[in-house]
């Protein structure tokens, strides 16, 4: 369990993180989402004792991170896969971690197999690794102590599609065994595939949070008909906002309301359903638009 209460960080006149509160629960993957620069990494650094908060606090397994005995055995952390000693081999990096945590040497071999680094790759220096290999090594280091909690910042960076699928499966199985996973990303689709709960942050503030199912229900409806212009006009006349899309229309209304209006006006529907991931992505982009480098359209 991770509990964050009123976490705030101020640098001079800049509020980087503003009164952030949420929980990441055992047996669930919590996606921590926001554009680059939204405050995700600063929050994670405060959770793990690397950056002192201006106000508020965070606990992991009921304690401050600094109060955990042998923290690597309880919390696996990956904040920056590039922050590894480039002169050491992958095997040496994990061996040092294992010795620090009091783990047997065979745990290193076991973890190398889990993250898909071959014996030959484990003997190479980290400076010769691709970003994807560094990510695998960083995830391996986080898993080394068989912790109850994982805190991972942008772990899919540099992974190819097969690597991303591997990571999703790894995190899902970890949560299904009762582990707590907090996974940050600026890419909704990446996290949506694996997360149970979502926390969306923009300009250092939480803009929406809840279970994925709850947020999907609020993502609206997609519909298409034999006459989308007539359907859009009928919905607008009924006081229901409409956005035209390439494949039909999108509206925040429930599918039953759209179907009812279409039936009243004799409009034949060829598609009607909850917006799902596409609607959730639109919600995410709109909620965090002010903190994005790109303009939401």
UniProtKB/TrEMBL annotation:
Belongs to the ABC transporter superfamily. It comes from Dermacoccus nishinomiyaensis. Keywords: ATP-binding, Nucleotide-binding, Transport. This is ABC transporter. One of its GO terms (molecular function) is ATP binding. It holds the Pfam family ABC_tran. InterPro entries: AAA+_ATPase, ABC_transporter-like_ATP-bd, P-loop_NTPase.
């Amino acid at each position: 369990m991770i509990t964050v209460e009123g976490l705030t960080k101020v640098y001079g006149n800049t509020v980087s993180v503003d009164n952030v509160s949420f929980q990441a629960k055992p047996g669930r993957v919590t996606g921590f989402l926001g554009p680059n620069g939204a405050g995700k990494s600063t929050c994670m650094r405060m959770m793990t004792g690397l950056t002192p908060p201006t106000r508020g606090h965070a606990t992991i397994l009921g304690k401050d991170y600094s109060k955990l005995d042998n923290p690597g055995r309880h919390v696996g952390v990956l904040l920056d896969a590039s922050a590894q000693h480039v002169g050491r081999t992958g095997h040496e990096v994990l061996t040092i971690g294992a010795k620090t945590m009091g783990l047997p040497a065979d745990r290193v071999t076991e973890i190398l197999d889990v993250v898909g680094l071959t014996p030959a790759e484990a003997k190479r220096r980290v400076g010769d690794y691709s970003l994807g290999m560094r990510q695998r090594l960083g995830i391996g280091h986080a898993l080394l102590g068989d912790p109850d909690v994982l805190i991972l910042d942008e772990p899919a960076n540099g992974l190819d599609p097969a690597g991303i699928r591997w990571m999703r499966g790894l995190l899902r199985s970890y949560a299904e065994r009762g582990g707590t996973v907090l996974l940050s990303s600026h890419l909704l689709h990446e996290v949506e595939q694996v997360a149970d709960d979502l926390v969306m942050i923009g300009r250092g503030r939480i803009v929406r949070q809840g279970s994925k199912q709850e947020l999907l229900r609020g993502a609206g409806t997609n519909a298409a008909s034999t006459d989308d212009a007539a359907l859009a006009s009928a919905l607008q006349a009924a006081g229901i906002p409409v956005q035209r899309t390439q494949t039909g229309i999108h509206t925040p209304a429930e599918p039953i309301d759209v179907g009812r209006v279409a039936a009243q006006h004799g409009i034949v529907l060829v598609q009607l359903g909850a917006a799902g991931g596409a609607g959730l992505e639109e919600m995410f982009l709109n909620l965090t638009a002010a903190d994005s480098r790109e303009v939401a359209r």
